[in-house]
Amino acid sequence: MAAKLRKFLLRYYPPGIILQYERDGVMKQKPIDLLDLTPDVDVEVLLSQIIRQEPLISENRRPALRQLIHRLIDKMLEQQHHSFTLFKVLRAHILPLTNCAFNKSGDRFITGSYDRTCKVWNTFTGEEVFTLEGHKNVVRVVPPSSPPAPWTTPPSCGTWRRGRSGATLAGHRAEIVSLGFNTGGDLIVTGSFDHDSRLWDVRTGQCVHVLSGHRGEVSSTQFNYAGTLVVSGSIDCTSRLWDVRSGRCLSVKQGHTDEVLDVAFDAAGTKMVSASADGSARLYHTLTGVCQHTLVGHEGEISKVAFNPQGTRLITASSDKTCRLWDCDTGECLQVLEGHTDEIFSCAFNYEGDFIITGSKDNTCRIWKALTASSQPAGPGGAGGGLARPTTAFSYND
Asked: Positions of the region Disordered (predicted)?
């Protein structure tokens, strides 16, 4: 039985259209990624290309498809957030926080701590939703997609689903300090103090590739959105780009004078950033490998870095007790977020890019809200603010 298109679904970040179709009585979905979409694109040429390449879409769907493309472009042209104000301060844990991250919808976020727990919070009320317990050591990581999965200090990792513990992956010879799911949720990447990163098959629990090459401990890893690339950062002062299919190292990024503590892709996968103990972050074009900007201004090491969903803004967290907001196009620092009284270990944007969370050694998590043309600051951002070298990392997703 031929597949029949039932519905278009719009995805703003990264830009794309989801085709909902029926085959043999079963509803399925297929994404059309528009990662290179820009406001100056020739829409009619793009429409013709999509219709020609996608058999589910006929010419009579052109008007509906055109409307969706224009909605994506309009979203890109919306006013960017240039400043944020303090929204809430949460006394989150009895020991310092190790990391924090939003879910997809941004209505909840998760915090991890040296107290060996993870806590899920309501973004808008600041109320605790529930606590994940059971680890015997510091919670290190929660992966960037699929069920939330706290990872711990030993060279193994556990997964959680709706509060229930699941499988364990073993193979690293030292502490696991980083992990992430690919977009499809069928692969996991882990980074370890044994100098290696590993790719794992979620279904079987088997190691697919060992990514070897760093001359020091791996501090951070991440998939790009397409799931074709992995970036890793290391205390050997470099970051490496890896091909997921073959496990081969594609390039080595140099330039930092101290340990690389965090790495990240933007949502489209066209930009890549590394953050270092030398107090700088380096912003790269992923495919060419060219360093577009070196972001300087922090007075201490940068432990965490994160893009907004649009890939136009970047936040960095540093041991100088500040979090900085940067313009990715110009490399300009737009704002310094202050208020924490000790080092900040983590920072993250929500899905819309209008909330930021920071987690600190002062045992608190702060929520920052974007200022719009019509809004007034709710109060001063406070004094201090700190981010420190990441001893943990995680991300959370419904």
From this structure: 375-398
Range of the domain at 222: 84-152+170-370
Query: Residue 84 is encoded by which pair of tokens?
Result: 């944020």
What is the mean pLDDT of the segment spanning 243-266? 97
Per-residue pLDDT band for 355 (boundaries 50, 70, 90) equals: very high
- Cis peptide, bond prior to residue 14, ω within 30 of zero: yes
Which stretches does DSSP call E strand in 350-396?
355-360, 364-370
Q: How many CA atoms lie within 13 A of 10 on its CB side?
A: 13
Residue 29 pairs in a beta bridge with 20
Give the full edge-to-edge strand order of the sheet including 187-192.
176-181, 187-192, 197-201, 207-211
Report the C-alpha gap between 228 and 244 in whole angstroms. 5
Identity of residue 230: V
List the structure tokens of 17: 């259209």
Based on the structure, what is the number of domains in the chain? 2
Alpha-carbon distance of 70 to 154, in angstroms, equals: 49
Same-domain check for residues 70 and 109: no
Give the model's pLDDT for residue 61: 93
Check pLDDT > 50 for residue 106.
Answer: yes
Tell whether 34 and 92 lie within a shared domain.
no
* Alpha-carbon dihedral sign for residues 286, 290, 293, 294: positive
- pTM of the predicted protein model: 0.79
